[in-house]
Each structure stands twice: as structure tokens, then as C-alpha cells.
Amino acid sequence: MAFSPIIGSLVLAFTVSTDLLGLMGGDHAFFSAINRNLAGRSRVLCTTPEAVAACKAKARFDEMPTLDSVLDYYREHGAGLLSSRDRQLLLDHDTNRIQRAVMRRDYTGMGLFPKAEDPYYFLNNYLVDLKSRLPDSAKGTVLYASDLTEQELSALIDLAGTRDDVFLSGAPFHTLLAKRASLREINLLSIVSVLAVVAIGFWLFGNLRFVLPVLMTLLAGFAAGTIMLFLVYPAPHVLTFVFGTSLIGLGVDYCYHGKSRNLLKALVSSVLAFAPLMFSHLAVLNQMAVFSITGLVTIYLCVRSR
To answer: Are 55 and 44 spatial neighbours (Cβ–Cβ below 8 Å)?
Structure first.
């Protein structure tokens, strides 16, 4: 059916949210904003040099900091950082071994920082210990990115699906996959609903002349609901559209009973049923109310104008 891809296209034409914390809204908006800032980075683990080259050909990654910038950062924020060995020596109050280690380091002159800034070489030892825990760059590395486009994310997902030396992590990848899955569900639910409408309509009327006006009316309702939703909410949640497929069933009833005197009463009762959702603390329920009420009113006007 052509109706279902059109619904998906209406959703794809705008930016939708797949953030689960974003569903809460209200008092939780602050935590949702923090989550977006912390989880917005993409991470790609490459276990071979060839994988690194293949990933860099697909997307733009953040430049790794230089050694000087790393040392400057730890020089300013390194207070209290200890290697596992130094921490244990301090816990054991083994000052003799600490002093001997300092004397050996003084004679070799191998400290990363001036003696006055790191007299016991604790920060020096911490960075040496930290380096031993990092991935071996000769065997692979971890690539970071903070602003990959959807095209770049898709390219990396496709690449990871064809290689066993590329592994993806980070909310942007999960967000894109969730968006794809949601759009598939929207299309599937829409196709099933529309086929059921056609089958029931043919059983009732004995012909298919009703199909085009019904589909056009439903499409008008979905289009109006979608436009209103994006006017009120810059990035509505994708689950609003998944649940919004229930508008097909309600809209078909309006089409079948278009000449009924009680159709206006049905519209009022439906609007009153959705209206309380506008006052919910859950953002997705607010969005469903806006989408459904706008869609139903549009469908009612289309039916009455025929």
C-alpha cells in the first residue's frame, strides 16, 4: 500500500526524538538534558589498523589530544591521582620504599613534570600506570566523535555489519537503530490496519469505490496531526507516531458513519477522552493528545465536507 510509506515519509521529513528520558519531561527535563550531553558521543572500537583506516574513510572523528595538552591538563588537575602501587604504599605507610623510589627517580631525571610540581612523582607514576591500561595503538584503537551525521552513523553501522574488527558503542548508534525500528513498526502497523479497513469495507459495501476517499481522508488526518505536532514540539518522540497509528481505526469509523447525526457527538467525546492527556507529566502523552485531537478534527471536517 502507498499509504504506509507516506506516513513514514512525514516522520522522516522532520527530526524525531528516541531519547527514553525525554519521554518524562516536566521535572525530569534537567536530567534529560544532562543525559543528552553525556551520551551524545559515538565510540568505535577498531581492533586492527585496517579497521581504523576503514572507519576514518566513512566518518569524521575527533582529533586525539597532543601529548603537551594532556600533560598540561594533568598538571592543572592532577592533585590526588595515584597509581595503584603508590596508593598501596601509602595505605601501608611504607614511607621508606616511597623515599627510595623518589631518590632513584631523582638520579635518573626521568620525571614528566618539574620536581617542584611533583616532588614525590605521584602524578608521573599515575600517568605511566594509566598508559599501560590504554589500548595498544599498534593493534587498534578507540575512535571518538561528537557530531556525526545520520549518513555517517549509517555508514559505520553498515561497515560494522561486514567486519569483525569494528565494534560500535554510544547513544547515537542506538538512537538511529531505534528510529529505523520504529519506522518499520509504523509502516507494518499501518499496512495491517489499512488492509483490514479495505477488507471490512468491501464486506460492508460490496465494492472498492470507498477506498480512495477513505485513504485520502486518513492521510489528511495524519498530515494535519503531524504538522501540528511539530509546530508545538520541535522534536516529538517517535513513539507518538507508533501509538498514533490507532488514528486509522478511529478515522475509519468517522468515514463509515459520515452521514450520522451523532458524528459531532462522537468527535466531542473522543476529544474529551484525549484532552486529559494534555495535563499529564509524561511528554509522550501530551504529544499523543495533540496528534490525535488534530487528526480527528481534520478527519471530521473532511468527512463533513463530502
So the answer is: yes
- CB atoms closer than 10 angstroms to residue 175: 19
CA 13 to CA 7: how far, in whole Å? 10
Residue 24 pLDDT grade (very low, low, confident, very high; cuts 50, 70, 90): low
Whole-number Å distance between alpha carbons of 199 and 193: 10
Residue found by looking up cell 499496512 in the block: 191
pLDDT at 21: 56
**Exposed, middle or buried by CB within 10 Å (0-12, 13-18, 19+), for 300?**
buried
Within 13 A of 195's CA, how many CA atoms are on the CB side?
A: 7
pLDDT for position 4: 47
Domain coordinates of the chain in residue numbers? 3-33+177-305, 41-62+146-169, 67-133
pLDDT tens-digit map of 250-283: 888 888 777 677 888 888 888 888 888 888 877 8
- In whole numbers, what is the pLDDT of the chain averaged over residues? 79
**CATH number among 1.10.3720.10, 1.20.1640.10, 3.30.420.40, 1.10.260.40, domain 3-33+177-305:** 1.20.1640.10
SS percent in the chain: helix, strand, coil, step 5: 70, 5, 25
- What's the CA angle centered on 65, arms 51 and 76, to 5 degrees? 145
Q: What are phi and psi of 43, to 5 degrees?
A: -125, 135
Beta-carbon contacts of 157 under 8 Å, excluding residues fewer than 6 positions away, are 168, 173, 176, 177
Query: Under a CB-based contact definition with an 8 Å cutoff, are residues 241 and 7 in contact?
Result: yes
Q: Residue 224 to residues 4, 64, 196, 252, 294: CA-CA distances in angstroms?
A: 16, 47, 23, 16, 6
Q: Residue 39: its pLDDT value, please? A: 59
Alpha-carbon gap, residue 286 to 290, rounded angstroms: 6
